[in-house]
Sequence to fold (234 residues):
Amino acid sequence: MFNEKAFLPEKTLTKPKNFLKNKPAYIFHHFMKCGGTSLTLSLKNWFLIINDHYKAMKDIEEYKLKRYDISKLNSENCIVGHFNYEGIHVFERYPEVIDETNNIKVFTFIRDPLSFCISLYYYTRRFGRIEDTLINYINSNRNLLAYYLPCHENNYKEILNRYFFIGITERMQESVNKLAEIFNKRKIQMPIANKTERDSQMSILTDDFVKNFKLKNELDYKIYNYCAEKFNMI
Fold:
């Protein structure tokens, strides 16, 4: 059940009159299977983490009704949550962050679409949520990045531009190093957490299969490539 007693820290080294005046507070959109668990462990070296994850799907409706008071955030805080379903997407749950004058910045990490789909399959199967084969799962789930963000062909750049930083999972250490510079924090070595074992089904990933996947998931690759372009410009 969603924790009703969860709250923002009452004690802080930041004086109330300086809340978000000179430095922003942050929200980490913990995109599933994109290195978010490892990154959250690292963020604890830099911020007071505010856990805004729901515990189970059955708690979603209650979770929608309870959220953290944005007005109490300060520059030592970082809210972390998945925000991956209708009604709780990050910009639905915290629409205030779209207004840049609130000085609350959202960041996330994105992964190669095929790698993301495969990792999500094995993770979901590990918990008994699906019994499908890898090839059926891949063929029946297209443009998953677009689905979970969410966005479509005509607005994906607009949605992605709302994030002040988007890291690339395949370049995790480089991404975290860039974040450290942006946050003006010491650089840290990334741990590896929440890694899921794979099996012989990976043999389906022939060159032709990958080429076909990219054709069927064109929007996801537009998203991924746009994120990579923005990352390279930092």
